[in-house]
Amino acid sequence: MVYRIIRTRNLLAATLAGLGALTWSAPAFADDSPASAATNLTLSAFVPTIPNKAPALGPAPEGMVWIPGGEFSMGSEGKCNGASCCSPATVADALPIHRVYVNGFWMDQTDVTNDQFDKFVKATGYKTIAEIAPTKEEFPTAPPENLVAGSVVFTPTPGPVPLTDHFQWWNYVHGANWRHPSGPDSDITGKGNYPVVQIAWPDAVAYAKWAGKRLPTEAEWEFASRGGLSGKLYDWGDEFKPGGKWMANTWQGTFPVKDTGEDGFAGLSPVKSFPPNGYGLYDMAGNVWQWCSDWYRPDYFARLKLAGVDVARNPQGPDSSYDPSEPGTQKRVQRGGSFLCTDQYCTRYMAGTRGKGDADTGCNHLGFRCVKDAGQVAIEK
Ligand SMILES: [Ca+2]
Fold it and tell me: Which of 34, 266, 275, 378 is the most exposed place for a label (fewest CB within 10 A)?
């Protein structure tokens, strides 16, 4: 079966207007919004995770590990020893800390790799959104020369720039797609074990369906990323480099000018290049952002709390997307941060912090991994 999903590419429209469909813009709240109020009343509300005791049903599917599920505290206060260690905007949409329960599930140990995505494409003939030229019907006002397939690529700036305008380091590049992550002159030869990138949300969903899996909910993703710990700043604890050891692929040097790669990688790293978390998952912080199934709203956590929910059970996210900073863009949740994240700009490799992006837009720092329901595996066996 040939999958072919053509959706409105907000990115192209945004490109024509000046490119405005990317992650990381600080969430903007109306002054009277519940999330704004919650942010101002930040309390340390983390309590321990209570993992389910039930063992996994049967052996793990290939490349997956058992995540027991249970009750945990979700969100981020962004605090180091009680003091703020990031911009308030970084955690504004990750508050308040609230209690969530998720069922147990299987999760891919790593991000989906180029080799894995290649198998899917060979089996189905699937074309990603970045590989399909936009049409005049989709973008009636676009000049024909702009209707060219492509995707969004990070480009270092020649020198230091104010970090208030991400258009300075993101470009829509014709011919950029998962086979050519940085544009036509780049390729993935010898990079079969690198995470696949330039994947839009519908592309990730199509892969997951083919693989008999699905994308994680945001709650499942965060439960898994914390690895059984609670309230820690990072997936592995409160120290960024415990014992001097790099724990995730992030950015060193001056952003967005030069990544000095002190952690061993300037740019993407192969999967499993850094230690796994408490559940045996690799690269849940840094390297590439990962799509979740949920729509994005910055006030979703606050609304759960305001609704009087003591423990949100298997939350699926809001019914629709709304981001006040880009109201016209339909965004899905992204998690984990990427090789571009740095404490100078985006510290969203911190546990519990959130990202978001236009569902139809891939980037060269954005991938995904899948999950599988425990019951689904039992039925198959
Ligand atoms: Ca790095």
Answer: 378
CA of 283 to the centre of ligand 1 (A): 12
Q: What's the pTM?
A: 0.88
Residue 100 host element (H or E): strand 98-102
- pLDDT tens by residue, 209-219: 999 999 999 99
Residue 71 is inside which H or E element, if any?
Answer: strand 70-74
What does the alpha-carbon distance between residue 285 and residue 91 come to, in Å, rounded to a whole number? Answer: 16
Q: For residue range 85-124, list pLDDT tens digits in order.
A: 888 889 999 999 999 999 999 999 999 999 999 999 999 9
Residue 344 lies in a domain: yes
For residue 286, report the distance from its CA to the centre of ligand 1, in Å.
8
Ligand 1 centre to CA of 178 (Å) is 20
In the DSSP assignment, the letter for residue 249 is B
Cα 342 to averaged position of ligand 1 atoms, centre (Å) = 9
344 CA distance to ligand 1 centroid (A)? 14
CATH at 358:
3.90.1580.10
284 CA to middle of ligand 1, Å?
Answer: 14
Domain housing 368: 11-380
Q: What is the dihedral of CA 130, 133, 139, 141, to 10 degrees?
A: 120
Regions of the chain short of the pLDDT cut 50: 1-11, 13-43
Token representation of residue 217: 């909910």
For residue 307, how many other CB atoms are within 10 A of its CB?
A: 9
Residue 2 domain flag: no
For residue 62, being part of any structural domain is answered with: yes
